[in-house]
From TrEMBL:
Compositional bias per record (Basic and acidic residues), positions renumbered to this chain: 222-238
Single annotated GO MF: methyltransferase activity
Any one GO BP annotation for this protein: methylation
Protein name per Swiss-Prot or TrEMBL: Methyltransferase domain-containing protein
Length: 238
């Protein structure tokens, strides 16, 4: 009987193992980055329900300040992570409009709203660059990790400013991904759209920023109706 012998296998150096792991990680990151298409594909909707650092519900409330009876517009609601949190705060007399280019996302939001007994959410399928609403319709407009996925974000901001009531507010939330809009760029686009910064929270890779129409662009008595407690005292602070 012949005995089969094998040569001992030399251990893989730690440096080589780390290099392989780093290469695999880079490949996965590249696949995620290059595969991150806009609009966000419905097939990957599960990731949209993962809370993001610095874009927490508490921070969203502090920056958006939803109030009972208000009418608010959400651009790009995804699967409704923000919608289902904001809508109840508007009360039975308030209303949350959700606008998306993908009917599947809107259907998903409405199914969740029905499950939770929320009857104050209204879906609209449309392009955010041409909002199908009259001037001065909304007390607030917000878009969380959605603005960068829309071509010509400058047009979206101008449209948001148009549909805001005088004294209304726009909240943009951005998180670092392929379509991320750095805060500096957003600030410049907002200035050009006639919006001025009133608050920012979080670093540039993950921030929430609130803007209001500049008085020159939003005349009218409602621009003067803000109570002292509602005036912004930390303009531009992270």
């Amino acid at each position: 009987m012949h005995r089969i012998t094998t040569a001992p296998v030399a251990p893989i150096p730690a440096r080589t193992r780390w290099a392989v792991a780093a290469g695999a990680g880079a490949a996965l990151a590249a696949a995620w980055w290059l595969g991150d298409t806009a609009p966000y594909p419905y097939a990957q909707r599960g990731l949209l329900d993962v809370p993001l650092p610095f874009l927490t519900a508490d921070r969203m409330d502090a920056v958006l300040r939803p109030r009972p009876g208000e009418r608010i517009l959400e651009i790009g609601p995804g699967t409704g992570l923000q919608s289902l949190h904001v809508a109840p705060q508007l009360g039975p007399e308030g209303r949350l409009d959700v606008l998306d280019i993908q009917q599947e996302m809107l259907d998903h939001v409405m199914c969740r709203a029905e499950r939770d007994g929320l009857a104050t959410i209204r879906p609209t399928r449309s392009d955010a660059r041409e909002l199908p609403y009259a001037d001065g319709t909304f007390d607030a407009v917000y878009a969380v990790t959605a603005l960068g996925e829309i071509p010509e974000p400058d047009r979206v901001l101008r449209e948001a400013a148009r549909v805001l009531a005088p004294g209304g507010r726009l909240v943009i939330g951005e998180f670092f991904d392929r379509h991320w809009i750095p805060f500096g760029r957003l600030h410049r686009l907002a200035d050009a759209a006639g919006l001025h910064l009133t608050e920012r929270r979080g670093p540039s890779p993950a921030y929430l920023a609130r803007f209001r129409p500049c008085r020159a662009h939003a005349p009218g008595p409602r621009s003067e109706r803000l109570a002292d407690s509602d005036r912004d005292t930390n303009d531009g602070k992270a």
